[in-house]
Amino acid sequence: MGRGIQSRSIHDRLWEARELHGVPVASPSLTWATAAKELEVSELVVMGDALVANSTNYEGLVRPQAPTEGARTAPPLATLEELVEIADAWGSRRGGAALRIAVARIRAGVESPMETWTRFVIVAGGLPEPEVGVEVWDGSEFVGRVDLAYRAQKIAIEYEGDHHRTDKRQWRKDIGRVNRLQEIDWLAIRATTVQLWPTPTRFVEQVRAALSRATDGGGP
């Protein structure tokens, strides 16, 4: 009994429990903070992006209560304010510095871990951080939501997971959205794991070139 289980003490000032399927567990924000003992900053950001996500489309995210059928949003597992609060309260405890770095990089509106990693790759390449979860409109017509965007330059960046290929409905929807973006003079740059790993140089340069053309007045 107990083999492989590790325990750690939590100051009662930091302890916060939630009930999950009738069992008391640590709150999502406290779980995130305790994970700093093992995770890198980038991994804490991925986890934090998932916790503050309110989209029902977030891949693999399990919520204590199933969202209403057809709903596009649901309450997040934690708020950014809660993560900021516990990162500040963690003080000099192990992982405290990593938490405070990570919380400044967490963004609401992400719908998958790979969207977060795509953002990391772009920023690590020395480019401005793109906006997350951008809704594109043509006047009063909703064109679609894009994973990442430079709104002023009309550049959309989409991470395409495998389900975009295997789900016929999603595949058709993606094509229609990209075509519609092009009609209103947006450029869509699409990426898969092949573009991002192990060497994302070409992908980053594509984004850089698109930004340069837009800045120089050449359009997307």
Descriptive notes:
By secondary structure, the chain is an alpha+beta fold. It is 40% helix and 16% strand. It has 9 helices and 6 strands. The protein has helices at 28-35, 41-52, 80-89, 96-103, 113-124, 163-166, 168-183, 193-196, 201-215, and strands at residues 17-20, 23-26, 131-138, 141-150, 155-159, 187-191. The chain has a 4-stranded mixed beta sheet with strand order 3-4-5-6. A two-stranded antiparallel ribbon has the order 1-2. A hairpin with a 2-residue loop joins strand 1 and strand 2. Helix 1 (28-35) packs antiparallel against helix 2 (41-52). The chain is globular and about 60 Å long.
Strand-helix topology:
Blueprint lengths: L16 E4 L2 E4 L1 H8 L5 H12 L27 H10 L6 H8 L9 H12 L6 E8 L2 E10 L4 E5 L3 H4 L1 H16 L3 E5 L1 H4 L4 H15 L5
Parallel strand pairs: 5-6
Antiparallel strand pairs: 1-2, 3-4, 4-5
**Biggest sheet architecture:** 4 strands, mixed
Strand content: 15-25%
Helix content: 40-55%
**Total count of helical runs of at least 4 residues:** 9
Number of beta-strand segments: 6
| End-to-end separation | 61 Å
Say what oligomer this is: single chain
Structural class: alpha+beta
Secondary-structure element pattern, one letter each: EEHHHHHEEEHHEHH
Spatial order of the strands forming the largest sheet: 3-4-5-6
Overall geometric form: globular
**What is the mean pLDDT?**
91
Uncertain residue ranges = none
Alpha carbon gyration radius: 20 Å
